[in-house]
Amino acid sequence: MPTAINISDDLVIQARTSSEIFRRTVAGQIEYWAKIGRLAEENPDIPFPFILDILKGKEQIKAGLGTPYIFGEGE
User: Fold this and answer.
1) Cα separation of 69 and 75, whole Å?
2) Is 44 left (phi over 0), alpha (psi -120 to 50) or beta?
3) Is 71 among the domain residues?
4) Which tens digits make up the pLDDT trace of 1-54?
């Protein structure tokens, strides 16, 4: 359910710029940043590029571009 929130004009401007680059809506860009920030905060020992690789891999699996790794298989 969408919820209206107040954020700074500066953040909206930055999100608008990034959203154009990455072809997201402004809201989608802010949601993306929030997701990345939450993951980084919950996993402080994992480097940012590794978090991005995990998210990219999950999207590739959803798109049918690979097979998920199942721990314990093939050992």
Assistant:
1) 12
2) alpha
3) no
4) 888 999 999 999 999 999 999 999 999 999 999 999 999 999 999 999 999 998
- What is the Rg, in whole angstroms, of the alpha carbon atoms belonging to the chain? 16
- Sort 15 into a burial class: Cβ within 10 Å, 0-12 / 13-18 / 19+: buried
Q: Which two tokens stand for residue 28?
A: 């989608």
Counting the structural domains of the chain, the total is 1
70 conformational bin, left if phi > 0, alpha if psi -120 to 50, beta if neither = beta
Supply the pTM of this predicted model.
0.72
The residue range of the domain holding 47 is 9-62
Look at residue 75 in the predicted model and tell me its pLDDT. 62
